[in-house]
TrEMBL record:
<dbReference type="GO" id="GO:0070286">
    <property type="term" value="P:axonemal dynein complex assembly"/>
</dbReference>
<protein>
    <submittedName>
        <fullName>Uncharacterized protein</fullName>
    </submittedName>
</protein>
<dbReference type="InterPro" id="IPR039750">
    <property type="entry name" value="DRC1/DRC2"/>
</dbReference>
<dbReference type="GO" id="GO:0060285">
    <property type="term" value="P:cilium-dependent cell motility"/>
</dbReference>
<dbReference type="GO" id="GO:0003352">
    <property type="term" value="P:regulation of cilium movement"/>
</dbReference>
<dbReference type="GO" id="GO:0005858">
    <property type="term" value="C:axonemal dynein complex"/>
</dbReference>
């Protein structure tokens, strides 16, 4: 008779839902734990790759800056030589 009483029915329904929810949650936690570890390892690998690529980019940028400086110096020297040759040719002709 007590089970037919409206006070008791919601309690039973709630407790069943809680049990089902708890069972499903624990299954979900157990099944996602290996996945979480794999994802964490992949994240660490990606961070390491990112760091390595960052260092490579910085190195290559420094190399390019150095080459640009060297090319600027070379162009300046070539301009001076060209001016000198033009002056020499002009003095020989004139």
């Amino acid at each position: 008779m007590k089970s037919d009483h409206p006070k008791y029915k919601p309690i039973k329904v709630k407790s069943k839902v809680k049990v089902c929810t708890n069972k499903n949650t624990s299954k979900t936690k157990v099944s996602t734990t290996p996945l979480a570890k794999i994802l964490e390892q992949q994240l660490q690998q990606m961070k390491a790759t990112y760091q390595l690529n960052q260092e490579k980019l910085e190195y290559h940028f420094q190399v390019l800056k150095k080459r640009d400086e060297e090319n600027t110096i070379t162009k300046s020297q070539q301009k001076r030589k060209m001016t000198m040759y033009v002056n020499n040719v002009g003095s020989c002709v004139g």
